[in-house]
Amino acid sequence: MYEKDGEKYYIVDAHIALWDARAENQKNIHGKQFIDCFYDYHKNLSPEEVVWDYDTYTYYGEQRLLKDLFEDGYVDHAIFQPAILSDFYRRGFGQTEDALALTRANPGKLTYNHAWDPRHEEAGLEQLRKDADRMGLKGVKLYTAEWNGDSRGYKLDSPWSRRYLEECLKLGIKNIHVHKGPTIRPLDRDAFDVADIDQVATDYTELNFIVEHVGLPRLEDFCWIATQEPNVYGGLAVAMPFIHSRPKYFAQILGELLYWIGEDRILFSSDYAIWTPKWLIEKFVDFQIPPELTEYAPITTAQKKKILGLNAAALYDLDVPQELRLPTEAGNASAEVAAGARS
């Protein structure tokens, strides 16, 4: 919980990871390229005083994660969104079993989402059924640009992807988080294109599609899709740190999102450990749309409370303390094109 000027904020960090990118876990040059690209994002978009050294960044472990999120970072609940990347790392990039164990050891504080890859076809479907039962999955994180042998990505609207989405429906996995946005070396930008969200969001209205990184740099494409699909949400991972390095750019991103999809479908994420939540939350609560950006309405305290936690809490049925709730229900997604136009 974060408190400032008499206002209390329930915080859900909707995109965190526990990774191991040390040299001994790198399978090839691409493992080093990937973590180096992450580190460049970290050091170039963070305030200088919160930049980690490189070795810590490659492996920080469970106790550092707990401290950064729950002791120092104001976070009430956090959601693991693993990237597997088995073509680049011997034991995988995201430490899935360690993250699952940490979730079980901290009931009420963590949710573990897993991953699937439609290119594993029938064998992957059977594994998904086992994972859903063993892990108690409510959500998954998909990386459509992940390499698999000769393949350098897949589309969500492919026949095999559709079979996996239909299996998610059967298994009660409702929240489909998808990395759609900035490329990461050596992955390909076009494999992160947001366009395939459009078809599956229309065809699977009982699933929620949380587009991580709000499609950046394709924000406009994302907004034009999400405004007409009430089951599409925007995750602010990667967008958030621009609040420090390029605050006017961040204001434009946020202003566009509020205009097109409204305040109930935007989720705060630090993208830990690319960034840490403490400074992002402090800056966001203090943030305001600059007065010269006259086409965007000022952001209200109630909107900040929804974005920082109440919207994600609604998606994951989290029990928000009464004193941290709003009089009106957050996360009430409705089909209303360009919701902000009525402001």
What's the structural blueprint in terms of helices and strands?
Layout: E1 2-4, E2 7-9, E3 12-16, H1 29-45, H2 54-58, H3 61-71, E4 77-80, H4 96-105, E5 110-112, H5 121-135, E6 139-142, H6 159-171, E7 175-179, H7 196-203, E8 208-212, H8 219-226, E9 232-235, H9 242-245, H10 247-260, E10 266-267, H11 277-286, H12 301-315
Parallel strand pairs: 3-4, 4-5, 6-7, 7-8, 8-9, 9-10
Antiparallel strand pairs: 1-2
The largest β sheet comes out as: 5 strands, parallel
The count of DSSP E runs of length 2 or more, i.e. the number of strands, is 10
The helix count comes to 12
Rg, Å, rounded = 19 Å
Summing up helix and strand content along with how strands pair, one would put the structural category as alpha/beta
- Residue share in helices? 25-40%
Biggest sheet strand order reads 6-7-8-9-10
Mean pLDDT: 95
State the end-to-end CA separation: 29 Å
Morphology call: globular
Strand content: 5-15%
The helix/strand order is: EEEHHHEHEHEHEHEHEHHEHH
Task: Point out poorly predicted stretches.
Answer: none
Domain Amidohydrolase-related: 13-318
InterPro entries: Amidohydro-rel, Metal_Hydrolase
GO molecular function, one term: hydrolase activity
Keywords: Hydrolase
